[in-house]
Amino acid sequence: MLNCWEDFIPEIQYINDAGLRAKVEDTFEEAREIAGWTLDELAQLPFSVNIPGVTITLREHMRAVAYMTRQAYQMFRELYGEAHPEYQWNYDFMMAGALLHDVGKIIEYGKDENGRPFINQRGKLMHHCISGSCLAAKHGLPDEVVHMIAVHVQDGTKKYRSPEAAVINKIDLLNFDPFKAFAGLPQNY
Which of 34, 50, 128, 150 could form a disulfide with 133 if both were Cys (CB 3.0 to 4.6 A apart)? Predict the structure, then answer.
């Protein structure tokens, strides 16, 4: 049984700033309350309802994106840090964005009478990048983090992404496109 957000997604502990970490948890909690899920129910949701037969959960996906973002940050620091001090990423903001990039899916999904998840009416009206960024802003997360949530998807439009948002976008795709390929679906570009 999952009792708290640190049980659900232990990578929250990657955020060093306790105030920022609390805002991330508050954002997750409000999404959970809005949707009426328990943490155990959330742990069973698929990360995508648009990939037939996908068995990867939203929890696994969010954890993977957070873990891989942390690894990318460490690699950037190790390989580029000293030689290129002009390129600095905000680690805590990047981790908050990685953790919350799909928080909107919590309120975007519902369950039908057979317990199968689907995109509910709220999800049809507001893509998870919109609802998630709105929740993050409501909980006082910095604009930089809200931006990462808002622009993490490949939607075919050209838009500015901060360096941190660019990393999260690519890592999210790395944790999405292969599963589309396994299902025989075309990937993003």
Answer: 150
Task: Tell me phi and psi for residue 101, to 5 degrees.
Answer: -55, -35
The structure tokens listed for 60 are 């696994």
β strands within the chain, DSSP E: 109-111, 117-119
SS3 117: strand
> Residue 170 half-sphere exposure, CB side, CA atoms within 13 Å?
11
Task: Give Rg (Cα) of the chain.
Answer: 16
Q: How many CB atoms lie within 10 A of CB 63?
A: 18
Block residue for tokens 């679906």: 185
| Crossing angle of helices 91-100 and 163-174, rounded to 10° | 40
Cα 118 from Cα 46, distance rounded (Å)? 10
The residues, ordered by sequence, that sit 6+ positions from 128 with a Cβ below 8 Å of its Cβ are 102, 103, 104, 105, 107, 108
Q: How far apart are CA 175 and CA 170, in angstroms?
A: 9
Question: In whole angstroms, what is the distance from residue 132 CA to residue 146 CA?
Answer: 8
The tens digit of pLDDT for each residue in 27-85 reads: 999 999 999 999 999 999 999 999 999 999 999 999 999 999 999 999 999 999 889 99
Q: In whole angstroms, give the CA distance from residue 78 to residue 68.
A: 15
Share of residues in the chain with pLDDT > 90 (%): 88
